[in-house]
């Protein structure tokens, strides 16, 4: 049975084109919390079959990985799922916008499999809460590039995509799912851009980010970690709160929401 906790807590999901098996081991050593073997956008149609075979071989060797399959209704979706039958598997489902597509994918996989719906369309954003509610869904991921193209907006415009990002955060919280995973930073040569994007998504309530280069992983982990000041505050709050009831510290009222915030920071600091 797959344990959803590692994927729920993952800060980084590193994409690897599935037609490049020579990169699989390097990705596994990158420090990313999860490696995503990609059968979709990064693989040309004529290479899908070889990529699928590469994924099957890697998984059968006992390696852990999330597999991004092709979208429901695409010419490759059925073959992708057929290649994953057997052991439980974590799958990222692109263009997710209907709960029945997510549940139907899970029905095709081995029992105890997990799905991360990748929300990339306006319909998917609107349906985010119903996607979260499907048993077997770990958390949502945000494909902002495709959504921006559909909306006709600049994918780097935070204002244009603010509502969509916030909708996913709210949907996850309402369904008691782990906070969502934000989209990729396409500039692999600019560490500052990766860090800035990670800070923005963390501020909105995301707790993970999709990555497209091993060099982005450590940057995201650093941003996702609480600062020394935040952590000191959190430990002070929890120490004062241990006395029970509503109290105060440094002029701040300490009640359950404040304690939950403090505990969340401590939990984030506990990540390797």
From TrEMBL:
The record's annotation in PANTHER family points to: CITRATE LYASE SUBUNIT BETA (PTHR32308:SF10), LYASE BETA SUBUNIT, PUTATIVE (AFU_ORTHOLOGUE AFUA_4G13030)-RELATED (PTHR32308)
InterPro entries named in the record: Aldolase/citrate-lyase_domain, Citrate_lyase_beta/mcl1/mcl2, Pyrv/PenolPyrv_kinase-like_dom, Pyrv_kinase-like_dom_sf
| Identification of the protein by name | CoA ester lyase
Identify the Gene3D superfamilies for this entry. Answer: Phosphoenolpyruvate-binding domains
Q: Per the database record, which ranges form the HpcH/HpaI aldolase/citrate lyase domain?
A: 11-214
Which Gene Ontology molecular function entries are recorded, alphabetically? lyase activity
Which Pfam families has this protein been placed in? HpcH_HpaI (PF03328)
Q: Does the keyword Lyase apply?
A: yes
Q: Which cofactor does it need?
A: Mg(2+)
Q: Which organism is it from?
A: Streptantibioticus ferralitis
What are the UniProt keywords, alphabetically? Lyase, Magnesium, Metal-binding
């Amino acid at each position: 049975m797959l344990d959803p906790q590692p994927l729920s807590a993952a800060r980084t999901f590193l994409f690897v084109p599935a037609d490049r098996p020579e990169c699989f081991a390097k990705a596994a050593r990158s420090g990313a919390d999860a490696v995503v073997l990609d059968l979709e956008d990064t693989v040309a149609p004529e290479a899908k079959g070889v990529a699928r075979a590469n994924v099957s071989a890697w998984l059968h060797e006992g390696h852990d990985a999330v597999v991004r399959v092709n979208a429901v209704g695409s010419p490759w979706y059925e073959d992708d799922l057929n290649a994953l039958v057997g052991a439980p598997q974590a799958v990222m489902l692109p263009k997710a916008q209907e709960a029945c597509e997510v549940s139907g994918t899970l029905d095709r996989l081995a029992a105890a499999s997990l799905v991360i719906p990748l929300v990339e369309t306006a319909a998917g954003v609107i349906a985010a809460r119903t996607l979260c509610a499907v048993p077997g869904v770990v958390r949502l991921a945000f494909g902002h590039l495709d959504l921006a193209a559909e909306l006709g907006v600049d994918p780097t415009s935070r204002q244009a995509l603010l509502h969509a990002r916030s909708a996913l955060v709210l949907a996850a919280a309402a369904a008691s799912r782990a906070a969502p995973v934000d989209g990729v930073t396409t500039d692999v040569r600019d560490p500052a851009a990766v860090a800035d994007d990670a800070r923005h998504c963390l501020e909105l309530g995301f707790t993970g980010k999709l990555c497209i280069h091993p060099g982005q992983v450590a940057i995201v982990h650093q941003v996702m970690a609480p600062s020394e000041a935040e952590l000191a505050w959190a430990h002070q709050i929890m120490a004062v709160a241990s006395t029970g009831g509503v109290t105060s510290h440094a002029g701040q009222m300490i009640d359950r929401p404040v304690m939950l915030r403090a505990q969340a920071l401590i939990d984030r600091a506990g990540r390797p």
